[in-house]
Amino acid sequence: MGQAWYLFECYNSRAIKFKEEFRINTMIKSTVAKIYSIVNISGEILFLNDAYIAFANLDRNQVIGRKAMDLLSITPKLFALAQASKDRRDIINGKKELIRREAIIASEKRFAIVTNDKLPLIDSGNIIGVINETDTGIEQLIQNRCFLNLKPMHYRGEVFGVSDMKLLCMLAQFEGIKPSDISSALKLKMNTVYMYRHNLLNKINNIFSGEKYNMADIAKDMFFEEQVITRQKILCIAGKKIVPKI
């Protein structure tokens, strides 16, 4: 893709100009599937796009200038935090031009299996920070190893098989997703999708006995168990590093 220059207003009211491999502004306007954050060398937040604000239920004025890691809770904690710090250093020191990782994330109201790309923020030829591009879209999901390697799970007396887990995660991540979308994404026949959905909903209805439920809340409860997710906080189960094809 062509490179372009963009301006973002930073927390200190100074405009930062940076060069990027793709058209961020166009992407942000055309899709809500990607959420962006930009941090400086010290890890302080310079920019969050509207999709990030909406996902995390943030007040932008309260988080710009804060350390990005203050908003995250990552497991496994020690390894994941050390790896996240190393990734940022590798980008800032110019050792890597792109680092891609997969993860399961959740906020107070949302759940997603995502692919995160870290790229250098460049000003006048110098690396001055890190751009985080997190893809929450369905196309990355069906190639995401966190999704592909889902295992059966026990939840409130019911056993959810691999097919149950994949469908549950899709329903939790994409509110209002249609069976035809699932059929197309997973390359399944429509009657197979309806059968999987019927089996999944039967198990969930057995658990909740007619009470209202939310798929995102169920997924968060299964993956993050009893962890409390508060406003302006994102929980993350770190996935493996992958080598992107450029």
From TrEMBL:
Biological-process GO terms, alphabetical: regulation of DNA-templated transcription
InterPro entries: PAS-like_dom_sf (IPR035965), PAS_fold (IPR013767)
A Pfam family the protein falls into: PAS
Highest taxon listed in the record's lineage: Bacteria
Protein name as annotated: Uncharacterized protein
Protein species of origin: Piscirickettsia salmonis
